[in-house]
Amino acid sequence: MAVQALSSVERGYDLLAPKFDETPFRTPDRVLDATAEALLPYGPFGQGLDVCCGTGAGMRVLGRLCEDRVTGVDFSAGMLARARQAHPEAEWVRADVRALPFGAAFDLAVTFGALGHLLPRERPAIFAGVYRALRPGGLFAFPVGAPPPIASRLYWALLGFDLVMRVRNAVWRPPFVMYYRTCPLHALRSDLAAAGFSVTTVPLAALGRREDGSPRGRLVLARKPGPRD
């Protein structure tokens, strides 16, 4: 983990790939299952795309929802090698997600836990690439957690982590981009709308609610306009 933290994002995840599924960084199955459950009313879908697929955890969602080919894209060769081993039936593409190499081929695109590896200024490029990759009427979906209350330990832990990462990236090269507080929902909505999507959210009911009654997680649904829109 220490070697990873002092590497680039790509090299760090190449190093972590053999053990990634055993770390806290892998999206938990309960979040994947909650996402699939929330997406069921919008399907079935044809072809599916997992953006920043890592070792292929998102296939747990796409496999349930998509009737045709499913594809994962990532820039880490190590992560893709693990994904191919776990899901040989899928197609795996190595590419920079800031310049996705797809035309309008997919009906559903998902991403899990990857947006913290993108600086806010990079989001427009990836959202534009997902927009191009979707067929008219296609859907881009991803879960977001509720922000922790300012009085909680989690709030200050995440703030402290982000501050440490900013100091690390200010004094060490190459940078390792991994932040927890750079993707507020209002900013994601704005960037998605600027890319051309119509954006809504739905609660991830399977994750439950907080003490104040608000959902613990929401699913962002970004729709590419269809021919009748």
TrEMBL record:
Lineage top rank: taxon: Bacteria
One Pfam match: Methyltransf_25
Keywords: Methyltransferase, Transferase, Ubiquinone
Keyword Transferase in record: yes
Domain Methyltransferase: 49-138
GO MF, one example: methyltransferase activity
Protein name (Swiss-Prot/TrEMBL): Ubiquinone/menaquinone biosynthesis C-methylase UbiE
One GO term of the biological process aspect: methylation
Protein's UniProt keywords contain Transferase: yes
